[in-house]
Amino acid sequence: MRRTRAALAALPLMLGLLGSQPAQAAAAVHSGAGGGHIPLLAYYYQWFQPSSWQRAKIDYPQLGRYSSDDTGVMRAHIAWAKSAGIDGFIVSWKSTPVNNRRLRLLMSVAATENFKITVIYQGLDFQRRPLPTAEVTADFAAFAKWFADSPVLFRLDGKPLTVFSGTWAYTHDEVAHITRPVRSKLLVLNTEKNERGYERLADVTDGDAYYWSSVNPDTNPNHAAKLDAMGQAVHTHRGYWVAPFAPGFDARLVGGTKEVPRKNGATLRAEYTAAVGSQPDVLGLISWNEFSENSYVEPSVATGRRYLDLLRELRGGAAAGRTATHVSPAPGPHRHTLARSAAERAWPNMLRLAGFAAVLVAAVTLLARRRAGSGIGRPGSHTERRTP
Fold first, then answer.
1. What is the phi/psi pair of residue 78, to 5°?
2. Domain range for residue 238?
3. 347 assigned to some structural domain
4. pLDDT for 295-307, tens place per residue?
């Protein structure tokens, strides 16, 4: 009788576990790639030389007024970034001798530190005008030729990720002309600012990396809803969605008019939460070291390491070092391979659990019938067999 009762008592528990599996699978899908680890890339600027720090700055790096050619600075940046759960840098780039030299240096350092690199191509000039289509086409072709095979590049479904900044200034046909020669080797994401803009280019790009550094989550009630809608639009077209978040913003010294206060980390926390909620394939932190627009998280004279500490908290503690397994999956069918994987892995367990529950019910029923026929278990019989 004790065994029968124990089996019956276990049955609700097993059925409860069975019922919880779909909810757990759904939670895993919602949380992003790799069972909850959404890759985080920080926008990184490599235009600094000592004279750069003499203009439009209200704060300075703890490392001093560095040059972007300094590999010691690069190594310190990567170590700090990894400690905060950042998986890689999205490097501001277009093909010039200085930019190419610095990109190669950064990639060589990253290769020794198990850290990932990709680029955001700057398609607008200093006056925010689009570069000639022929120049952009040649630069993307050069990047594909020189860098696409490097193991240090950040990949999704086996292909290196790149971002084309300023796509809104180009026609559909111009973007198609630029991306068509390289999309067999590279993913090229646009940087459109709304669903309509993204859908205009969905067939000639591979997703969207929205660079939204100036939003104030306290004064824009549509902030999270807009990210959700953008993510949904991108995923509807089977593209990749890089969701933006920032610690604050102030570009008034470089001609801007808007300030988004940091609020001692509250802004970063709110924007991170909204970005994660939009079910991104990648999180895009704006930025590592944009000191002119004051969106940096690099340790500085004024802020210390406060924002790295907050990122570490948001990323669940020691989140670094997971780059290789989570951000470079083997080549496979186009998206959403990573998001589906958690649910797909849950189904075998669900089927095994259902089978176990069925066997348990059958065993309990058979045991009860046998005991009913033999008198075992009836009142006064205890557990012994009756003698003739």
1. -65, -40
2. 38-321
3. no
4. 999 999 999 999 9
